Amino acid sequence: MRDVGCPPAIQQHEFRDSSGPIGRVDFWFPDQGVIVEFDGLVKYRDPSMRNGRSAEDVVIAEKIREDRLRALPEVRRVVRPVWHDVQAGGRLPSMLRDAGLPVRRAVRTAPAW
Length: 113
Known about the structure:
alpha+beta, 4 strands, 27% helix
């Protein structure tokens, strides 16, 4: 994200609400109110990563968690790129820009890292 012009992010920032801890997010941009959570799809597909839960239960838990994050007054957007988005030609820069993060104007797709 730094390579496309975004400001430094706070990594592994923990959020709480009136119900208690929500969890840590991958990247938090407090000035823009943007959370970036990289989604590894294996946590939905691999039964060993689901702690005995169905894929459906994992998706529902993620949805509830994201709803709690988005309900916080300081959070304006949650961006959830997957691996394909960060590969060369991927849409990560556009996703970040659409969320309100500063991205160099000339950058439209993910560069070849």
